[in-house]
Design brief:
By secondary structure, the protein is of the alpha+beta class. It has 2 domains: about 100 residues, no CATH class; about 130 residues, Nucleotidyltransferase, domain 5, CATH 3.30.420. About 35% of the residues lie in helices and about 15% in strands. The chain is built from 10 helices and 10 strands. It has a 5-stranded mixed β-sheet, sandwiched between helices. The chain has a 3-stranded antiparallel β-sheet with strand order 1-2-3, with no helix packed on it. α1 crosses α2, α2 crosses α10 and α4 packs across α9. The radius of gyration is 22 Å and the shape is elongated.
């Protein structure tokens, strides 16, 4: 798969590829869920790719019930935008997407957020497991550098405030990030308990809010950054730090500014690429197809600027 692939230049080829990716066993009715019991509707008056379910008699296309539904943007441009976002390690700006696809910035911005929503895990399995290690760490995104220490003591909102992000990284596995209001035991414990398998080995820095949650796992080891300790045998949080380096380079170098309202979707984008990285044997084409398989049930609409609603 490359930029000259027919699925990026022809809407019919794009539709065929999307159907093969999402419907490997035949058309799936989004209304009743019946598999391979639909008839393709042909004729001049029929829309391309239209099916009628033989069970519930409703009509549908491959985009019904997905983030692509009711979009006037050709399907080949949707697939190209998905490929560009899935293959860009540090992200790609909506301005660049707009120039590449030949659409307005407003359209490109909306497309990017829809694709980020598709990349969001809906029912994620816990990270880790028996004999597996999960690292937990926190960082601060955006705002003014002089406010970094203020935000660490007490999260503040308004101009210059940094946004707190907590990330859980499974060594040789997935990453999962959360935008939190405050970095303390009250906010972090529920996240760690619900996102990490209790049989895992937890690795953190020396922050006090990891002490009690760590007691509920197979083991918990912490390194003391304040004393200059960063690695002690298998104990370290360097994997999480590496994830943060990619995240921050993307936000600073590509997006420049990320609003608090949409930070969670940018985090989902970086989590998705990290969890489907080349180091796990996943190439750009495979990563793109995985994103296309996740587009269902996440239709995202904007009523007014900054106000999101789900259909």
């Amino acid at each position: 798969m490359n930029l000259t692939d027919p699925i990026f230049t022809c809407a019919d080829k794009a539709r065929d590829h999307l159907e093969q990716t999402r419907w490997p066993h035949g058309p799936v009715c989004p209304h009743c869920g019946v598999v391979n019991e639909a008839t393709a509707i042909k004729g001049r008056s029929a829309r391309a790719g239209l099916y009628q379910c033989n069970a519930c008699r409703d009509q549908f296309t491959i985009t019904v019930g997905t983030v692509f539904e009711r979009s006037k943007v050709p399907l080949n441009k949707w697939l190209l935008a998905t490929y560009l976002m899935a293959s860009s390690k540090k992200g790609i700006s909506a301005h660049q997407i707009g120039r590449t696809l030949g659409v307005t910035y407003k359209t490109a911005w909306f497309m990017c957020h829809r694709i980020r929503e598709a990349m969001t895990e809906t029912s994620p399995a816990p990270l880790g497991g028996p004999d597996k290690t999960v690292e937990a760490d926190e960082t601060f995104i955006g705002g003014r550098e002089k406010n970094k220490h203020v935000n660490k003591r007490q999260f503040t909102r308004g101009a210059g405030a940094k946004q707190a992000v907590v990330t859980l990284v499974e060594r040789d596995g997935r990453a999962r990030s959360f935008h939190v209001a405050n970095v303390n035991a009250k906010t972090l414990r529920p996240i760690i308990m619900t996102s990490v398998h209790r049989t895992s080995h937890l690795m953190t820095d020396g922050a006090s809010f990891y002490v009690k949650p760590g007691q509920e796992f197979a083991s918990h080891e912490a390194v003391d950054h304040k004393s200059g300790e960063y690695v002690r045998g298998k104990a370290h949080s360097n994997t999480a730090e590496n994830f943060f380096s990619i995240l921050k380079r993307g936000i600073i170098g590509t997006f420049h500014h990320v609003s608090e309202a949409h930070l969670k979707r940018y985090l989902a984008e970086f989590d998705f690429r990290y969890s489907n990285r080349s180091g796990l044997g996943i190439n750009d084409a495979m990563r793109t197809d995985e994103a296309l398989r996740m587009i269902a049930g996440k239709r995202l609409m904007y009523r007014r600027a900054g106000e999101a609603a789900y259909a």
